[in-house]
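DM from R.C. (forwarded with permission)

"hey, sorry to bug you on a friday — could you get me a structure for this? deadline for the figure draft is monday and I only need the backbone to look sensible"
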Amino acid sequence: MSDKFFFKGKKEKKPKHSSYGFNTKRAVKAGSEEAPLVLVVNSEERKAEIELIVQENALFATIEINGELAENISELNAFLNKPKTTTFEKKPNRNDLCNCGSGKKYKKCCG
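My reply, with the result:
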């Protein structure tokens, strides 16, 4: 006879997958010590301004001064100007009180 009539449970343990435990292949956050921002500026004064912005936002960056190249601070701008999540107000259910303050149910008033 087979075991399926008498044995309750699993015969074999569930295998551990690669997603189990600590994730060693995580993405490194830009602007951290492991992956600093790479910025190019044209002058010492501009470098001082950028260093101040980096310190205010608790970031790490390597700033290179090169008058021949065009200024490149796009990584910093992308980090500072992240898009914001839009949220919408919840529409009341039919049997909730109306928002207009009439005291009626939403379905009888504004619905």
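R.C.: lifesaver. The longest strand covers residues 37-41.
me: no worries. The chain has a mean pLDDT of 81.
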